[in-house]
Amino acid sequence: MKLATYKDGSRDGQLVVVSRDLSTAHYATGVAARMQQALDDWGFISPQLQDLYETLNGGKARHAFPFDPKQCMAPLPRAYQWADGSAYINHVELVRLARNSEVPANYYTEPLMYQGGSDDLLGPCDEAVFGDEAWGIDFEAEVAVVTGDVPMGCTPEQALDGVRLLMLANDWSLRNLIPDELAKNFGFVQSKPATAFSPVAVTTDECAGAWVGGKLGLTVQSQWNGRTVGMCDAGQEMTFHFGQLIAHLCKTRNVRAGSIVGSGTVSNRAVEKDGRKDWVRGYSCIAEKRAIETILDGKPATGYMKFGDTIRIEAKGRDGQSVFGAIEQTVSSLRT
Amino acid sequence: MKLATYKDGSRDGQLVVVSRDLSTAHYATGVAARMQQALDDWGFISPQLQDLYETLNGGKARHAFPFDPKQCMAPLPRAYQWADGSAYINHVELVRLARNSEVPANYYTEPLMYQGGSDDLLGPCDEAVFGDEAWGIDFEAEVAVVTGDVPMGCTPEQALDGVRLLMLANDWSLRNLIPDELAKNFGFVQSKPATAFSPVAVTTDECAGAWVGGKLGLTVQSQWNGRTVGMCDAGQEMTFHFGQLIAHLCKTRNVRAGSIVGSGTVSNRAVEKDGRKDWVRGYSCIAEKRAIETILDGKPATGYMKFGDTIRIEAKGRDGQSVFGAIEQTVSSLRT
Q: What average pLDDT score do residues A148-165 get?
């Protein structure tokens, strides 16, 4: 099924069930008012949401209304956890190659992951507000999962059973703040501002055929100012599947219902063409494009985003239909 | 006023108001069922809680009962944000000195801060469960604040107005997992497991005289296996006050109600005695004791915690009374 959270002026919004084709929606009020409530008691609540979903898809839901992504908050407008992996090692390799540094050996055996802020997540069409263009504003197109309760010390296979929902994420990054922050050795705080999520979160059965072994084998499309810059396959080249990412997080603590775990920037390897590398799939963040430019030409040519720029991130199913709806954001300036 | 969250089998527990002397409590059910609910609507709800608090202190609350810290969850059993500073530069200096590395200059001008997990916070008397003693189990006694809504780009002074509640924290750390994790450059995930908090969270007026300029001038006492190892002053030597810590976090994002911001390990400078340094205040984490031993004797002598060890963390007010109640935890082994 497909679920979304509609704006209602409150901090958590209203849970709605959305039809498979994203054309109609229905408030889930009688079943659960908020997304977190459904996740807290998934075994009991999800079958009731599924019933409503089937009625809605059959065109028989009595109070259905046209679904409007602009009315959406993030599926979880605030979450108790947002832990973002960097599971496409190709992304790391590119960035490292561009600065002539090797990828540490353990990057291939253990996931990279950072803890993000989750008190103020952005809806799919919310403006992305930043204080300064000079911070190096960049999008990052990712796949993310929402978990149920996953106990400390579980295996990747057990962790995979804890996946409740799939979404897309735009993990906004402030590239020029990253070097100083990482030099301080405590991870990202200022350089990873509020993350945005797709209009709907879907159960894994909505991606049947594409959701295999904890990886989502769909193409994540990124359009920057209307131009397609990325058509990256989220499946095959994911170095660590979501079960591995969640298990990494669970090694020393319980992960509780409603935790969001991200894949990191979706990234695909170059193909060789006439002895030259060609990144035919494009890119899911500008930093990667700049790394490619540096590798090829010695320096980056593409600048980061400017106020007024737009980004659109979407993934289509094998039937050609949008699975999650599109993240469509405009970069704008903080007026203080 | 003083607030706590009582266990009731649910994920968020029940909000209770606790008397100033921590002897009695009263469910706040008629006002707000959960702590987060009070924080979400603080302007409206806090005066009603204050009324109940005054009635309780006057011995006139009709359904008061004896307060039992063992029934407490963390004041916020799960939170939308837990960002922990490292605001006592003396702690950083000691650790660096022990390994012969300099403190980077910007550590004195910009707070160090890491984003922690907040989906599964521990109550004051909850067992601290770990998979392996070899991970280097360590406590960290800290002061923490709970915020209201604080907007992006605010000043430290504005941020200070956003402080709603004060607590103590035990920021459990797995020292032997830290080097590998920090070498990966993405901050802490596995090496910072679930954090524990004091039985009660208090408004700043409960610390009148001690809460000055965003610092809490009280002594934080740490007892390890019943022996007092730290009597550290949390006030004067805090390099960055809580307004500065929150403003650091707010530079690129909004901070929303119910965010927890920590001070980092409370730490005091040595005094010189006969030409030799003496850390008369003791320590608020074992790593610091080991750093001191390394500076004095070339190597650490104190081991980390073992299964069965206990830690007690408390702060007394200027009247000698416990302000927050005590964190009292036992280290125990994960049985898988």
A: 98
